[in-house]
Specification:
Blueprint lengths: L15 H12 L5 E10 L11 E2 L1 E15 L3 E6 L7 E4 L13 H12 L6 E8 L9 H16 L6 H15 L7 H8 L4 E6 L5 E5 L7 E11 L3 H18 L13 H6 L6 H22 L6 H16 L4 H12 L4 E5 L4 E9 L3 H15 L5 E4 L7 E2 L15
Parallel strand pairs: 4-6
Antiparallel strand pairs: 1-3, 1-13, 2-7, 3-6, 4-5, 7-8, 9-11, 9-12, 10-11
Bound molecules: adenosine-5'-diphosphate and magnesium ion (MG).
Adenosine-5'-diphosphate (ADP) binds next to strand 6 and helix 3.
Length: about 400
């Protein structure tokens, strides 16, 4: 091939032993354990989670690794390899929304959210290191929250089920960090299984593991990180969410999830014009999730391609959350031989996924890089999405019980 491999194999996660050693250097003692939680890409089902709908995310090999040790004095001490080089010290009893600035609000928010549920959790020393790019639409925030949630679950012997951990992490992001996200990112981070995509029902939090064998079908899933995040993202997300809720109310529905494709024309005719494209996106997007699941279940992952590209058109034309960079990446990838492509995540930048025949991967990545250069955009970063395991403990054979009674 005249192009080099666009996403050469690299260590997917920080090294557990190195994280342990760094914890000891910073906190002066050994951790009680080491946990990790992955970032994600969403295959299809965008802006559906806060409408109680469906999504099909998968965990990335890239993850946030967290070493943790319980403290009895009510202090929470936080240090990140991607932080400001300092240790943030907080008092657990004084945690309150708005009181913690910067990145520490995500992990502190999880501790606060657990206490809001009446759970008996106290302080800890934490050190984390991550390979999930931040702000790239790959959910480094959920990876961080979910790593803390699974660590606290064991450190304090809580025994929470996975969907409860995801809800705690989502509540931390919504109510403590101030980001009105749905639950998909956190569910993907805690519930995913290696080699599978996760069929998520955002209302019941029921999940189904859908086999997703890329290599066996000669496919690769490229992640093209556009490295842009346009400023309107925050306000626009909240406005879109409010628009969906208003539409559901006008239609007399609990959520837009309750509207099916056959009912769509009559519903659209009854809505004010500005809500029509929003509702059309959500309803057709839920249908695309079901199509995608059916194609994977039939053992035809290559047939996902057109579903991805149709999903992108809906995000671009109806939901209007794409941007010149994501549109260019999608169009160029498809023209260069991708079976399908779409932006993944909330939008206004972030990353695009492209499903490609393995042999075409270098050409697709090169074509996107060339198109970005020609448009004057910064070069996109390329990762490979390999369906990977969800959050868990990394050092099972570690130093013995944590949380008192539960096996370590
Ligand atoms: P995304 O979740 O798509 O990566 P967000 O804006 O939701 O983007 O979350 C990114 C923010 O999460 C960062 O700006 C930072 O505050 C926090 N964050 C994520 N990972 C880390 C990390 N390893 N160390 C410190 N902060 C992190
Ligand atoms: Mg995020």
């Amino acid at each position: 091939s005249r192009h080099s491999d666009p996403a050469p194999r690299q260590p997917a996660a920080p090294d557990t032993t190195a994280v342990r050693r760094e914890f000891e250097r910073i906190h002066g003692r050994a951790p009680h354990g080491v946990w990790a939680a992955p970032g994600r890409v969403n295959l299809i089902g965008e802006h559906t989670d806060y409408n109680d709908g469906f999504a099909l995310p998968m965990a990335l090999p890239q993850r946030t690794v967290l070493a943790a040790r319980r403290r009895a004095d009510g202090l929470l001490r936080l240090h990140s390899a991607q932080g400001d080089g300092r240790t943030t010290q907080l008092r657990v009893a004084e945690l309150a929304p708005g009181a913690v600035p910067g990145w520490a609000r995500y992990p502190a928010g999880v501790v606060w959210a657990l206490r809001e549920r009446g759970l008996p959790v106290g302080g800890a020393d934490l050190y984390l290191d991550s390979t999930v790019p931040t702000g790239a639409g790959l959910s480094s925030s959920a990876a961080l929250e979910c790593a803390v949630a699974v660590a606290y679950d064991e450190l304090y012997g809580l025994g929470l089920e996975r969907p409860e951990l995801a809800r705690v992490a989502q509540y931390a992001e919504n109510a403590f960090a101030g980001v009105p996200c749905g639950v998909m990112d956190q569910m993907a981070s805690v519930c995913s299984a290696e080699g599978h995509a996760l069929h998520l029902d955002s209302r019941s939090l029921e999940v189904r593991q859908v086999p997703f064998d890329l290599t066996g079908h000669g496919l690769r899933l490229l992640v093209l990180d556009t490295r842009v995040q346009h400023d309107l993202a925050d306000g626009a997300y909240a406005a879109l969410r409010a628009g969906c809720e208003r539409a559901a109310k006008l239609l007399g529905l609990g959520a837009l999830r309750d509207l099916t494709e056959p009912e769509l024309p009559a519903a659209l005719a009854a809505l004010p014009a500005e809500l029509v494209p929003l509702v059309r996106h959500v309803v057709t997007e839920n249908a695309r999730v079901e199509q995608a699941v059916a194609r994977l279940a039939a053992g035809e992952p290559e047939a996902l391609g057109p579903v991805l590209t149709a999903g992108h058109a809906s995000l671009r034309d109806d939901y209007r959350v794409s941007c010149p960079e994501t549109d260019l990446a999608v169009d160029t990838a498809v023209a260069a031989g991708a079976l399908g492509a779409r932006m993944t995540g909330g939008g206004f930048g972030g990353s695009v996924i492209a499903l490609v025949p393995a042999a075409a991967a270098p050409a697709v990545a090169a074509a996107v890089a060339e198109a970005f250069a020609a448009a004057g955009f910064a070069a996109p970063a390329v990762l490979e999405a390999v369906p990977s395991a969800g959050a868990g403990r990394l050092d099972r054979a570690g130093p013995g019980p944590v949380g008192g009674t539960r096996p370590g």
